[in-house]
Protein 1
Amino acid sequence: MATSEASNTTYKKIQVRRYKPDENPEKHYLNEEKGLWAWLTTVDHKKIGLMYLASIALFFLVGGILALVLRTELWTPARNFLDADMYNQVFTLHGAIMIFFFLVPSVPTVLGNFVLPLQLGAKDVAFPRLNLASFYIYVIGALFTLTAILTGGVDTGWTFYTPYSATTSGNVLLMTLGIFILGFSSILTGVNFIVTIHKMRSPGITWAKLPLNLWALYATSIIQILATPVLAITLLLLAMERALGIGIFDPNMGGDPVLYQHFFWFYSHPAVYIMIVPGFGIVSEVISTFSKKIIFGYWAIALSSLAIAFIGFLVWGHHMFTAGQSSLANMVFSFLTFMVGIPTGIKIFNWLATMYKGSIDLKAPMLYIMIFLFLFTIGGFTGIMLGALSVDIHLHDTYYVVAHFHYVMVGGMVMAFLGGIHYWWPKMFGKMYSEIWARIAAGFIFIGFNMTFLPQFIMGSQGMPRRYFNYIEQFQPFHQTSTIGAYIMGVGFLIIAFYLIHSLFKGKRAGSNPWGSRALEWQTASPPPLHNFEHVPVIINGPYDYHKPMSEFQLGVASSHNGHHAEETVNVPESSVQDKV
């Protein structure tokens, strides 16, 4: 039951009755409207989330195939089937597709779109049409990028560093234009989420009862709004440099190529947190649910997301320790790099404390989160190594950086994303997947991932540069181990695709709450009805109240919706009631 959190908060009494969702709904959002046109014109956040899921899955497939092509080429020190120019194009496309079309949008656009209104008890996001527009902007940006690939390709690397990107013959202009367009999708999604969280919470949802997943999406949205315009301006200047020769980055015309790096990394390091902070939100939800414990250190986890968003804007210079910065600037950026590890460490220790003495159930979602904790911690520690000036001078632009980045992005964000997909899959489709196959796939991915990237730490520490087409023979065993691991990991992802698609046709029906969660999204039917809840929910308990028996756990609906049977009277902040009930 809601209690006073501040002396200046006005409360209003509302009569509620206990709400019980339909376990097997006959009508839900998947069968309300059928046909391709109904999907293409929908403003339902759930369907838009699924359209994003199909799109980013396609890009993940393409990016993964390109990665296997690279690893196959590197099987031997000499050329196998790619020449040097084509190799450059392939790793550029792998990086650009994975970063801009999968890692950055995946969690906010797919799981954020689907889950955020459900966790607020809202019917939809604040601006449904803008949400659909964001999806189409994403598609348009992808089409420009595809056109660039088919009409000459790009060989600059995903960072598009000047002066090479301003002079190369590749179709850099079209590629950067596609990513420029894509940025608007990210900005509009961030605006939509912030307004939704502020204005569309159901009665009883105070900031202290906001799921930690929404705190993470809130912090991510702030980064999207503030950082993405910097990337847009940077790419626009690069396009003007190529098309008009204005000389902003060209030293022959008074420009500075290092200025491009400052602009680019001022966006791209916060972009790392656009990728990983939403994953932190998923981890909080899954660990609490499968440990059956109230989350430990709620406010520490919530505020650390905002702290990461803030500090993330101050550390871009650690990508440029070898670019000729002053010693003082290098020291400041090194110190700030260590600082950003503090809020991340706070999360790790709070998650471990949540699991301590919990009733842990290692179902597939929890299994992927356990993998996340192991791999992401390695990524974090190796990031601290790269933040140390003396060490980074040796390791800069080596395979050590490649391994660190993949331990953070794939070992962190992708594992969290997989945990979230497995966690909310029954809610999305009302079907259960094969738990046995999910565990087998997790094993393939864990083994394959470590076989792929652990040897790269060794190669990097021994001086193997990244992005090289050929290499000396002493590194061949490490490269071959990485290639074998990449194929094992690829098998794991194919198994995931198989059993998830199979579950749509042959999977068992999922009840409204197959995990026994206390979070709001699990208190409605699976799949949810068109408007998420049959009634406007009144929140009596918090999302992590596992210390209360399920028989005492209550979700109310305002009695005015269904006449009699009022069960109790609760106090909710008047500002959260307004005219919703």
Note: Confidence is low (pLDDT under 50) at residues 1-7, 559-581.
Protein 2
Amino acid sequence: MAQPALAQQAPQAAQADATTNAADSGEIVVTAAKRSENLQSVPISVSAIGGEALSKSRITSVDSLVNKVANLQLTSTVGDNTPIFALRGVSMSDFSLNQSSPVATYYDEVYKGNFAFLGIALYDIERVEVLRGPQGTLYGKNTTGGAVNLISRDAKLGETSGYANFGYGNYNRFDANAAINVPLGEKAALRVAGTYSKADGWFKNVNPGFPDLASTDEWGIRGTLKLEPSDRLKITLRASHSFQNPQNYGIYAQPEAVNRPGLSQFQIDSNVPAKRRAVTTSVALTLNYDVSDTLAVTSITSYDKGSLFFKEDTDGIRDQVLEVPYFDRASQFAQDLRLTSNTGGPFDFILGAYFNREKVFNETTLEVLNGTDVDGDGFVTAADCAAGLPVACKVRNQFDQVKKSFALYTDLKYKLTDALTLRGGLRYTHDDGKQTGFKSDALGVDDSFVANLIPLSDLSFKQNNVSGKIGIDYKLASGDLLYASVSRGYRAPSFNAQAFFTPTELGVAKAEQVTAFEAGAKTQFWDRRITLNMAAFYYTYKNQQFINVNPADASQQLLNIPKSELYGAEAELTVRANDSFTFHGGLGLLSTKIKEGIVSGVNVAGNRLSNAPSLTFNASFDWTMVQGNFGSISLHPEVAYQSSQFFENINIPRLRQTSYALFGGHLDWNSSDGRYSISAWARNLGNKFYFTSRIDLTGFGLDYNHIGNPRMYGVTAGVKF
């Protein structure tokens, strides 16, 4: 029986590797618009990176995507594998573990909102797609900033195949990852993939008897069962589990003369040995059914749960000035149901319904000067907390949070002519949130109760929103695409997780809204050997949510910046000069300005938004230097640059991160039959020292800083079968 035409267009992951396609034919297949389409035909600003390119560049966590995508940034305030993304300056200026980013992360079309769900993402990956701008008419969850789509390799029917890779690097790093695909009869297949990594800490601890920080210790496993009982029905069941238990990150405290006397850049004097622990479990069922040759139904049902614990040595020194244990436990159920048409005529649509329920338990403790003998009796006890509150206290808050989101969305396109297409979409969203059982207590160093600071409290919100998009695109006779659009994105209200000392810190931040104007072009020249994609944008940004940390006492409030303005552009260039040489480059330009806002009594109008460098640039090339019966040797150098930026909205000069560039790459040997490979790789080859997050804590005598990873290098060997 012939396969229905729509099966080729159904919203499922394309099988071809994005980078391989680009190298062979100049075509990259993506599912950014919920149909398998050539990237050059999608009127959206989207960057696509193939899984093979990610693996060879040692992009093993989503954090490192910022070196590959123009105008994508992150802060790492809560550590590796839990990035806080910023895209075109739209960011979550909050490190609370109960929050969800305005740049959504999806694993195989399943939204992962809470930090506890992220786990180990980048293994056995088909490709990554980064969509810029508000999302809501195509995606289950609405966002103001964009979406990062991680698409794993699918199980393949009728094929027995697999691979295994093993690597060793500096800091005694050992990596292993593998996958196997086996057929289960003619209509089913199973794919199992796993990863394991372990490395010593690179932040060397000079405190005797205490471990080095920022180590690696993690593993993950994923199973994918694919069933095709008929030509019209495709069923995919995915289940995954991951575990991480490294030494936690370290804090680089300034000024160095006070907090780091005699220490080199990658040394620390820390008294906190607690390991970081993150556990995730995920199950997702995807059904694709072709109702007819022109109509398909897609259902994605998912359940996630996870927990995240780490104790941060916030002061970054041996003395017990400020230390913060964080704990987050979360679960999520989500259902996305949509109807997709592919009539072959002028009109097509996507009609969807989405439901998400997220439940979170959050507990955070501020351990303030816990070595201080306030009453002078020679001992540090609960009596010292009572006498010096909050000095010598553990100030602990905890709460439960439930958020529900229900939405109806549609995305429409109508071909006015063979060349001109009108597009539009609407979304209705109802969000309901409850924060219950919030309390904050002052405890002694022995965890005994001393005082209640914030009585048992409940907060809630309900929000209805209508957002949407309208656009037009024009396909030239050459096949190049011009497009323009206006869209509006929405992000639900949020609860403050960082209230500790008084009930006035409790609150609900207003919903965010971004109105985005965008125009772009997707072009190819020289027999499709040159691909140049460009986009320009202008945003109005209302009520950006951010956490404001009072530097004097570490009290924190969740606030809104009433109005900001953002504009800029991106350009991505690929040049396939010949079969042996390909160049890739990306350029991002960005200007941000706060139009209205007060932070800690300071008028911040005219300031730049956080996490918004004005220039980002990345470049690489793939050069097959030698090829023969012995195989091929290829060189792949890379560079990523970003200009200066701030990590907070007051734009404190001393907390400005200056511009920097990171260099890396890999040198590969591949056997002539493609079965065997050896790769020597390096990242941050120049051992550049730079900050990835900064907070003013001068009340505790320090500036709080995260720093980027130092030079990493190693060798990886692989086999395919």
Note: Confidence is low (pLDDT under 50) at residues 1-26.
Protein 3
Amino acid sequence: MMKVVGKRAWPVAALMVGIFMETAAAVDWYHSGADYAPIPADLETQLSASNRLALGADHAVALTPGGVPFAWGNDAHGKTTLPDAATTGISRAAVGMNHTLLLGTDGVVTAFGLNASLQTSVPTDLGSASAVAAGDFHSLALVGRKVVAWGYSRYGQTIVPAAAQTGVTAIAAGSNHSVALTAEGKVIAWGWNIYGQAAVPAAALEDVVAIAAGGEHTAALKADGSVLVWGRNDAGQRDVPEAALSGVSAIASGEKHLLALKDDGSVVAWGSDSDGQTEIPAAIDSPVQRIEAGGNASYFLTGALDLTVEDSEGAGLISGESVLESVPTKVGNSGSIKFVVRNEGSLPINGLAVTVSTGTSGFSSPEGVPTSLVSGGTTTVTVPFAPTTSGDKSATVTISAEDVLNSPFTVSLGGTALSSEEDTDGDGFNDWLEYVLRDLGFDYESDQTSQAATLREAMAEVGIYFETDVGGLDLAAPVLARDSETGKFSMLLDFQQSSDLATFADFPLEASMVTLDEDGNLQIDFDSGDDKAFYRIKLD
């Protein structure tokens, strides 16, 4: 039996701890602890294309981002012999003592291996699942928000309580107990409880974001980045190191050991070290992106899936902290915010999706975003901004992808909608006009009445008027002359109408529109019937 370390073959006895499997291809998996024997000759190649593992006591499954599974280790009961129907399109895997579960992207669960306790007898009416978990001899699936269980049930591990039949977002399985996490951050556990592994402490009844289960212990990751463990403690499983009490982003558990991934990419390990499973390989020279644990083995992934987001100028953004601002946009017009999503990892990113919180903000979700991104690939995302009301607008854009550790990635959006009908500062110029004239020193939030008046006068001198000024133009008064033939003074008033001040057409008056007031002045009253109209009088 041989083990690959770097590019050389070593006897197993020569190096049991800190095994580093160097890959010439896509990713770097580091391994410590027990092996899954027999080791196939192409294991290094298979792992170099994989970004997710499911580890058991003596067999394991690897998955590529494209959904191709690979199983190795002890093949007792055919637990590593993949069924023909489950060689592609697999999104998740779980391994029990002697059985394996594969979850397809279509939600179909395939089970194989030992079936003495009906652990591979998937219910025919299961429906479309979104997650799977495996205990020693029982199986779990998450269907909708409900936990479905089958297999060995001596300790009640497959008797799903009412609390786990709605609102569940994640599942885990120990040797003979089952665990669920609700959307409210509450942990639910049932099954064998001899060591208190199913007795959820008060601290795990709220603010939990992730769960893991060992053989006879249970772990929870709190929203504050701390790890909580309860159940058996014969190997120090419950003795959470101080380093795992803050800044933790993910947890994993083997039979009697645990791993915690920190925000900075470092890993904390504790519990049983019978095969060196809590030793962090010294060869790791970059931040760890994913941790996997099972049985007496630990795996650490670096350089696999890494999604980064940049603004349109190439500056990197920070998830949950960065803000992208749109330029001011006129109400009724359309603008946009652009940013770049980049795959900095060495494997393709699948399931890429970009969504924007809706409402009355004026921002909407982008179209045309690719669902996958090759290693080193980029895509420019355009978020439309079409406000219908004025004011400051905000929304949140969420970038998510399968298996990417910093998914979802969120960025705040901001934008200002300006109206051509509103004059916020009261200086006579509407908000949108002042933004358009910003290069002349105008500011829609500052009263610049004097500056506005000066500009109006300068424009009037060259014949440019505002609509509001048309009715107040200072026209010269006409002088009437006597008609030499009739001896009378007369004038003909020709009323004309325009909608654009460029082209005028006759606007015939009717007798009912014309009256003499008490002072003998000619008064004309009429309705135009148009929302926007200008009138002039031509004196003939």
Note: The first strand starts at residue 2 and ends at 5.
